[in-house]
Write a structure and sequence with these properties.
Structural class: alpha+beta
Number of strands: 15
Low-confidence stretches: none
Order of helices and strands: EHEEEEHHHEEHEEHEHEHEHHEHEEHHH
Distance between the termini: 30 Å
Helix content: 25-40%
Mean pLDDT: 95
Radius of gyration: 22 Å
Shape: globular
Strand content: 15-25%
């Protein structure tokens, strides 16, 4: 019973059996555990906050779960170098708060930041809502400490912006989902804090208009545009139905909306005035149709909760076929239109919950049917659903996994979309670093 929470994923879709759960207190103990497992030929499943959506941190049967939850210390913060060194079990919010206490800013932000761990964020190369300005987790990491599959501890905790001394090994483990080693600590970049923000919820006619609005805001605000989130009506309706206290920001129930935010490290420009002027111009040009502005921090947080609770509302509503895809921003509207038509033809009555980070081309495209038995039949056709969605994504130059990883969910699916050369290189790297195949087997490759 004590292990149950470690053996099921957040969505409740994947469950497995673990030989045991090990909870080391530091990197040395984590290395000892992996060394013992390597000697005994026991597979290891690294696990952070267990908030993943692809089953990447869930045991399949008989592995040892290596929980990093006790490795939760902030080791050092170098304000002059604008870096923070944290252990892998630190929750993302803990890192944000440590940076804030030092008068700095760590920009990675996502809905599960209260429980998602830095080790997991790096292992899946998490994106979140501020990729538009600051980049993915990979872009925010300067150095790593990693337990290798044989139990050796690699100390790559260097806080250098420039280090051209051979292969940049940390990038093997960022996005590797624990299949090449166990991240135990990281050096992360910090930034000047945002002195002001301006937030608005904007109605647009369709995704093409949302893309035009993105271009309009970039021209008006430059890199002050920190977030640009597309929200479809069906996703917002689920939040309004299942999350107490949720209020629709706009009258008329617009089919498509955008949540956007500007941020600035100085007060030289009045961001609220800038955003109001830019959106007034967008409405005059027919790019947007309506807008609600956050007039206080609490109002801004309320708008963000609408966006961040879509996944939770979907979980309450029932299981769905989830897709985490990325496309060139210029092809997003085409994808949404074509995919919607093809799915409606193949599965009449399908409910499409489409939302995500339009600013960087990352969509969460989740499909279900409202009635329970119809939905069960629909879930059973996941393979056919994936063919429609993923084949279209590939034809438009996109990727079937943007920020959630492959895990168990897309391990076989990726074989259809990566070239034989890419898969051969990935398997070769895996074979060299993990010749016994004990690191997170059955995931990624």
């Amino acid at each position: 019973a004590d292990m149950a929470g470690y053996c099921t994923d957040w969505r409740g879709r994947y469950s497995g059996r673990a030989l045991a759960v090990a909870r080391p207190a530091d990197a040395g103990q984590a290395a000892q555990v992996v060394a013992l497992c390597a000697a005994a030929g026991v597979a290891v499943v690294p696990q952070g906050g267990n908030t993943g959506l692809c089953g990447g941190a869930t045991p399949r049967g008989g592995e040892l779960v290596l929980s990093l939850g006790r490795l939760n210390r902030v080791r050092t913060l170098d304000a002059a170098n604008a870096t923070i060194t944290v252990e892998a079990g630190c929750a993302l919010r803990q890192v944000q708060e440590a940076a804030e206490a030092a008068g700095l800013f760590f920009p990675l932000s996502l809905a599960a930041e209260g429980s998602a761990s830095i080790g997991g964020n790096l292992s899946t190369n998490a994106g979140g809502v501020q990729v538009l300005r600051y980049g993915n987790a990979r872009d925010l990491c300067l150095g790593l400490e990693v337990v290798l599959p044989d139990g050796r501890l690699w100390d790559g905790l260097r806080g250098l912006r420039k280090d051209n001394t051979g292969y940049d090994l940390k990038h093997l483990f960022i996005g590797g989902e624990g299949t090449l080693g166990v991240i135990t600590a990281a050096v992360l970049k910090l930034y000047p804090p945002l002195r002001q923000t301006a937030t608005a919820w904007v109605a647009v006619a369709d995704p093409a208009a949302a893309t035009a609005l993105l271009q309009h805001l970039r021209a008006a605000a430059g890199d002050r545009l920190t977030a640009f989130e597309l929200v479809g009506r069906s996703g917002l309706d689920l939040v309004l139905r299942h999350i107490p206290g949720s209020v629709d920001p706009l009258a008329g129930q617009p089919t498509w909306q955008v949540l956007l935010e500007l941020g600035d490290t100085t007060r030289a420009t009045d961001l609220t005035a800038l955003l109001e002027e830019a959106l007034a111009g967008a409405i005059d040009a027919g790019v947007a149709t309506d807008a609600a502005f956050a007039r206080s921090e609490s109002q801004a947080l309320a708008l963000w909760r609408l966006r961040e609770n879509i996944s939770e509302a979907q979980k309450i509503d029932g299981i769905s076929v989830k897709h985490d895809v990325s496309l060139p921003v210029s092809r997003v509207a085409e994808f949404i239109g074509r995919a919607g038509r093809e799915l409606a033809q193949a599965f009449p009555g399908v409910r499409i919950v489409c939302f995500g980070h339009l600013g960087d081309g990352n969509l969460h495209y989740n499909l279900s049917k409202p009635e329970a038995q119809a939905n069960a039949d629909f879930i059973a056709a996941t393979g056919q659903v994936n063919r429609i969605v993923h084949d279209l994504v590939r034809s438009l130059g996109g990727s079937i996994s943007a920020e959630h990883g492959l895990g168990q969910l897309k391990r076989d699916e990726i074989l259809r979309y990566k070239s034989a050369v890419e898969m051969e290189m990935m398997r070769a790297i895996k074979a060299v670093l993990d010749p016994k195949g004990i690191m997170n087997p059955g995931k990624v490759i």
